[in-house]
Amino acid sequence: MKLQRFEHDHKDIMDGIHELRKLIATGIERNAGAITQLLMRMSATIKLHLAVEDRVVYPAFAKSGRSELAALGRFYQEEMGDLAGAYTEFAQRWNLANRVAADPEGFRAEANAVFKALFLRTRREESELYPAYARLEAA
């Protein structure tokens, strides 16, 4: 599978984070509806991205026959499970505009933590996981 798909998803996710930051900066309560709509769009992208990684990327590492690559794939898959769980809880907790508007500082704090972790994860995937996957696919 071509890495452009994964990179495109990462760009969409990063664009979403940037858009969310703008909405937060201009007023959480005022933008609560737009925030929840954006979270729904981002959730769809994230869920699809994770599903493709689970079906394609991690199995390729597991089947590589190389213990270091299998371990790398397992590490990323397990770590993503934890992050995916945290994101799912976040998205479910803040899926209604009235919830976001009722606790803007709670939303801000949780959004900062979840999206920082997501940002750092995508950067590590791009610098470590995807290059290893590309080498595996080329072999």
Which terms summarize this structure?
0% strand, 139 residues, 88% helix, mainly alpha, elongated
Number of strands: 0
Q: Describe the oligomeric state of these chains in a short phrase.
A: single chain
Number of domains: 1
The global form is elongated
Poorly predicted segments: none
Mean pLDDT: 94
Describe the structure.
The chain is an all-alpha fold. The chain has one domain (3-138). The chain has 5 helices and no strands. Helix 1 packs antiparallel against helix 5 and helix 2 (32-62) packs antiparallel against helix 3 (67-93). It is elongated. The chain starts with a helix and ends with a helix.
Task: Compile the SSE list and pairings.
Elements: H1 3-25, H2 32-62, H3 67-93, H4 97-102, H5 104-138
Helix pairs in contact: 1-2, 1-5, 2-3, 3-5
